UniProtKB/TrEMBL annotation:
Keyword Membrane: yes
InterPro entries xrefs: PgpA, PgpA-like_sf, YutG/PgpA
Keywords: Hydrolase, Membrane, Transmembrane, Transmembrane helix
Species assigned in the record: Hymenobacter caeli
Name the record gives this protein: Phosphatidylglycerophosphatase A
Pfam families xrefs: PgpA (PF04608)
Coiled coil: none
Origin: domain of life: Bacteria
Record SUPFAM superfamilies: YutG-like
Transmembrane region(s): 12-32, 44-62, 82-105
UniProt GO molecular function: phosphatidylglycerophosphatase activity
Enzyme nomenclature, EC number: 3.1.3.27
């Protein structure tokens, strides 16, 4: 079960699995938009915390078999993308911008993101993507604020 969670039901076995997982997260958010807890700060925060805890557990469990931060583990990309879109209006343009920002930060790993990978086990696997999501979220929200003026 933990391998299925870590690989997001096998997505991690695909070429470009991290991008596929982040895009699948966008699709899920788009389909759920306006109908539930993803749009309200309290429930969205609880769902995000639950996803991060589940991802950390699963990444920790697969590490002995798959190695440290295996490319097959993509739950971190899904969680990071969720963080990127946390409390941001879920629209097509916002999702595309969030996905582009998140993948940039996740791949380039600037501003201390790479340092998070040094943390042990599942925590290190998840936190670099969480920080990439935080930076993406901050830029996305700043852009939305500036564009509404």
């Amino acid at each position: 079960m933990f391998k299925a969670i870590a690989s997001v039901l096998g997505v991690g076995h695909l070429k470009g699995g991290g991008t596929v997982a982040a895009a699948a997260c966008c699709l899920g958010l788009y389909l759920a938009r306006g109908r539930g807890p993803t749009t309200r700060p309290g429930p969205a925060g609880l769902l995000t915390a639950g996803l991060l805890a589940l991802g950390t557990w699963a990444a920790q469990r697969v590490e002995p078999a798959w190695g440290k931060d295996s490319a097959r583990v993509v739950i971190d990309e899904a969680a990071g993308m969720w963080v990127a879109m946390l409390c941001v209006p879920v629209t097509g343009p916002n999702l595309l911008a969030g996905l582009a920002l998140f993948r940039f930060f996740d791949i380039a790993k600037p501003l201390g993101i790479r340092k998070m990978e040094d943390l042990p086990g599942g925590v290190g696997v998840m936190l670099d993507d969480v920080l990439a999501g935080v930076y993406s979220n901050a830029l996305l929200r700043a852009g939305l604020k500036l564009s509404s003026r």
